[in-house]
């Protein structure tokens, strides 16, 4: 539809003269002919009673009060209050049924409208009335409207520029984010529950496990190292050649699980393993058979049920947590009776967090002032203040509460950090890995994994741009596993738009370690 407008008093007079000149002759001729009789009959039969009653009733009082009080300030306000309440009720009921059928025949308004809008320069200040822009009205109503002090617009939202406008490269960027590829923010534009265009999730050609855990990238071997928990075995997959080595740990049957493995700096064939109640050291060479067995040397023991996740801080001190026993259904049998320990370079062993149920994910901020930690049954990611010099943590508080974040059906497990300082958290029971902004305490991305029970994550591969993910079939029925053949698999996610940093090996006094192993 098109809009006819009157701006001020002088424009109104001009409009009146123009309207009279343009319409007088054509309308008079039409009215004198067929339209006069039909209009008279329609007005007398259809409009007379309804208009008379309407005018005597609501329209008379409404229009009088509205015209007197409102018209001098706002023509439209008075028009709406008076005309809509009175005239439209009578006009629409009578005029639509009779008058319009005659009015629309042979009456063209396109030329008249064009002249009027040209005369007023297309200004849109005060609404007057609008009609269809068709050359000939065909069944369209003539209505009154209001537009107050508006200028023509291009419908672009205020304070924004159209997409692809020069100088506006982030037109579609959500508020408070940086455009993609901004230094230090390589994944800023990836919405939650979506993935970058080229992101890939590939399952590695390795056996599925009841419970895989503790992935760690070996730069010198270009291999992903991880543990097969209930098989009490270490696995090492060489991504270039596809070779897969398995080292079974023989501790005489003392332990039921192996839960973590960390390389020892300065000794490329030595690994620190969390095996049941013990922290032990085992030797494993690339020259060993692909299926091999070794006897580990114990260097530290806990009185808790058994160790779980472990990782080294930026200075190479080992932090290893414990957990309670599991029942026959794989459920935790005891709560709040475990701890988080630290084993430093001199092999001093100390307890830092008590009343833990299942100690899991660990990560440190790049500025070495924050320590991030997960106690799985609490369904929380915690943050501590971290003293890098002393290797001390304090001031524990909640960073992300899974239940408050709508993630109550899953459990936080292993964790790592990317170059942007964002945390990547494995979700056991959730078939996904979350990316968490620790400054905002919010989930900013979700990456779906084709395995229900996702257990841990680490960065590796070329330039540390691949996220390796472990999982397990623990607590899944045979039917679930059969229906989801990727369950328990190990995965490599590439092209995430961000990357990680090299992991830290255990930096121990090697002489003291040799003495401990000789005992």
Question: Can I get a quick summary?
Answer:
The protein is α+β, with helices and mostly antiparallel strands. 22% of the residues lie in helices and 33% in strands.
Verbal overview:
The strands form 7 sheets. This protein has a 5-stranded mixed beta sheet, with no helix packed on it. Strands 4-28-27-26 form a 4-stranded antiparallel beta sheet, with no helix packed on it. It is an alpha+beta fold and 519 residues long. It has 2 domains: 2-144; 200-518, TolB, C-terminal domain (Neuraminidase), CATH 2.120.10.30. Helix 1 crosses helix 2 (75-103). The longest helix has 61 residues, at 9-69. The chain has helices at residues 9-69, 75-103, 110-119, 478-483, 510-518, and strands at 2-5, 127-131, 143-144, 200-203, 212-218, 223-228, 233-238, 244-249, 258-264, 267-275, 278-283, 291-294, 297-301, 306-312, 318-323, 338-343, 349-356, 359-364, 370-375, 380-387, 392-401, 411-417, 423-428, 432-437, 442-448, 453-460, 466-472, 491-494.
């Amino acid at each position: 539809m098109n809009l006819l407008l009157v701006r001020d008093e002088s424009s109104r007079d001009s409009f009146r003269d123009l309207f009279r000149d343009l319409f007088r002759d054509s309308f008079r001729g039409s009215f004198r002919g067929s339209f006069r009789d039909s209009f008279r009959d329609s007005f007398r039969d259809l409009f007379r009673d309804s208009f008379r009653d309407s005018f005597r009733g609501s329209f008379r009082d409404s229009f009088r009060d509205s015209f007197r009080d409102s018209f001098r300030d706002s023509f439209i306000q008075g028009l709406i209050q008076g005309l809509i309440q009175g005239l439209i009720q009578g006009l629409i009921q009578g005029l639509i049924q009779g008058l319009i059928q005659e009015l629309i025949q042979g009456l063209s308004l396109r030329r008249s409208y064009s002249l009027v809008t040209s005369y007023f320069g297309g200004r849109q200040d005060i609404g007057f009335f609008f009609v269809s822009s068709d050359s000939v009205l065909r069944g369209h109503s003539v209505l009154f409207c209001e537009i107050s002090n508006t200028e023509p617009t291009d419908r672009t939202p205020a304070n924004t520029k159209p997409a692809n406008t020069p100088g506006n490269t982030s037109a579609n960027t959500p508020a408070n984010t940086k455009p993609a590829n901004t230094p230090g923010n390589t994944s800023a534009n990836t919405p939650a529950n979506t993935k970058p265009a080229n992101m890939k999730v590939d399952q590695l050609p390795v056996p599925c496990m009841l419970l895989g855990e503790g992935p760690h990238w070996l730069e010198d071997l270009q291999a992903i190292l991880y543990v097969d928990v209930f098989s009490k075995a270490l696995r090492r997959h060489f991504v270039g050649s596809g070779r897969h080595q398995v080292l079974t740990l023989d501790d005489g049957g003392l332990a039921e699980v192996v839960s973590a493995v960390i390389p020892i700096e300065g000794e490329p064939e030595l690994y620190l393993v969390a095996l049941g109640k013990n922290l032990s050291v085992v030797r494993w060479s690339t020259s060993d058979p692909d299926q091999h067995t070794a006897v580990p040397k114990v260097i530290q023991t806990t009185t808790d049920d058994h160790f779980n996740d472990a990782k080294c801080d930026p200075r190479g001190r080992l932090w290893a947590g414990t957990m309670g026993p599991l029942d026959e259904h794989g459920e935790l049998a005891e709560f709040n009776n475990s701890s988080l320990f630290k084993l430093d370079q001199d092999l001093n062993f100390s307890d830092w967090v008590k009343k833990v149920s299942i100690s899991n994910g660990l990560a440190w901020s790049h500025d070495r002032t924050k320590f991030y930690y997960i106690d799985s049954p609490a369904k929380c990611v915690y943050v501590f203040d971290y003293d890098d010099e002393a290797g001390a943590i304090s001031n524990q508080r909640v960073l992300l509460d899974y239940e408050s974040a709508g993630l109550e059906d899953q459990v936080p497990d292993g964790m790592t950090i990317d170059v942007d300082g964002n945390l990547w958290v494995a979700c056991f029971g959730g078939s996904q890995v979350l990316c968490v902004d620790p400054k905002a305490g919010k989930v900013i991305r979700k990456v779906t994994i084709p395995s229900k029970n996702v257990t841990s994550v680490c960065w590796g591969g070329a330039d540390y741009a691949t996220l390796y993910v472990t999982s397990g079939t623990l607590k899944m029925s045979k039917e679930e596993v059969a229906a989801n053949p990727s369950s328990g698999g190990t995965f490599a996610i590439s092209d995430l738009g961000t990357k990680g940093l090299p992991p830290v090996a255990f930096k121990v006094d090697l002489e003291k370690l040799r003495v401990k192993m000789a005992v």
